[in-house]
Write a structure and sequence with these properties.
mainly alpha, Leucine-rich Repeat Variant, elongated, RSP14
């Protein structure tokens, strides 16, 4: 018998009896019970029983437990629940979210990380993103406090949660000085941090106000530099921000001053079309070039590179082909 896990009853009694043991006074006993439950909830049938049986309503008390290990283990259990859509939906209708969100300030780093894993998974659903959206100002404040390399996992999860919520509504993050905060994360050593920061920045650059803030800040030179990053996803997300920003005139002019056209063209010439990881990078680059072609200086540069654009206009992938055809049409347009 495993001494770190509580004994598990047979069949349909396993989940109810284990949840009944969560009320025992000893923290060690609660931890053994939570460990056994975490093992069980890898089974979709057990998870369905947990969700439909109303057992989630017993968890808020454990989220305020005086023992940090119990709080952390409870969050890990909730993370397993949110692995399935039915679990995410059940969690949103339960009373778990308020005490869970308060643990963002927990003294235990492992507990905070587990909370963020749950919130990030919840944000996969539109309803979950809407529920977490009210926490964005707090998440942004936490990001401002993350200035060292000791809690990279926590920082990545914070950025991921902000990014997912901002795809639903960018206003809370923009109102919390989001562009400036994320801009400082673009230069971090960790590629995971750079990737998630650029992804969140791309979400913030969708509304016009976000585009303006990107132009007014000091982020564009860094983003242009990230187009040559070693990580393809970092390159892709940086290209997405530039694609959004060059829609406005200020963005076009600043990117042309930063000499972004040769960098984007180099990406087009080097990236293989058949690699699914680079498809979005190709599409974003082509769309950015299309917008830059609306400026006289951009069009003059791109007219010299029509053969490259024409080759991409014959791509097998329909999205790449369509984006390249649009670029050729804009570059060659005459009044």
């Amino acid at each position: 018998m495993d001494s770190t896990r509580a004994p598990v009853a047979f069949g349909r009694w396993a989940v109810p009896l284990l949840f009944g043991q969560l009320q025992q006074p000893q923290a060690a006993g609660r931890l053994r019970t939570l460990a056994a439950l975490c093992d069980l909830l890898h089974d979709p049938e057990r998870l369905q029983q947990t969700v439909t049986g109303g057992f989630l309503e017993q968890l808020p008390a454990l989220l305020t437990d005086e023992d940090a290990s119990v709080r952390t283990r409870t969050c890990e259990l909730l993370h397993l629940v949110t692995a399935h859509s039915v679990g995410r939906q059940a969690l949103l209708t339960s009373s778990v979210l308020p005490p869970l969100s308060r643990l963002l300030d927990d003294s235990s780093a492992s507990c905070r990380t587990s909370v963020l894993r749950v919130l990030t998974r919840l944000a996969l659903l539109p309803a979950g993103g809407a529920a977490v959206l009210g926490l964005v100002p707090k998440l942004m404040l936490k990001l401002q406090q993350q200035d060292d390399e000791d809690h990279v996992d926590e920082e990545v999860l914070l950025l991921s949660a902000v990014g997912r919520c901002s795809r639903l509504d960018a206003r809370p993050a923009l109102a919390s000085d989001g562009v400036s905060v994320l801009g400082r994360k673009l230069s971090r050593r960790s590629p995971d941090v750079r990737r998630e920061a650029a992804a969140a920045m791309m979400a913030l650059s969708v509304p016009v106000d976000g585009k303006r803030q990107v132009c007014e800040g000091a982020g564009l030179p860094v983003l242009v530099g990230l187009l040559q990053d070693d990580d393809v996803e970092v390159q892709t997300n940086a290209a997405g921000v530039i694609m959004n920003t060059v829609i406005i005139t200020t963005g076009k002019l600043q990117c042309l001053e930063l000499d972004v056209v040769p960098v984007l063209l180099d990406l087009l010439s080097r990236q293989p079309e058949e690699d699914v990881r680079t498809k979005a990078l190709l599409v974003y680059s082509l769309r950015a070039l299309t917008a830059l072609a609306e400026a006289p200086d951009g069009r003059r540069l791109l007219l010299q590179q029509l053969p490259l654009l024409a080759r991409r206009a014959e791509a097998r992938d329909p999205d790449v082909r369509r984006a390249a055809q649009t670029a050729v049409r804009v570059v060659t347009w005459t009044p």
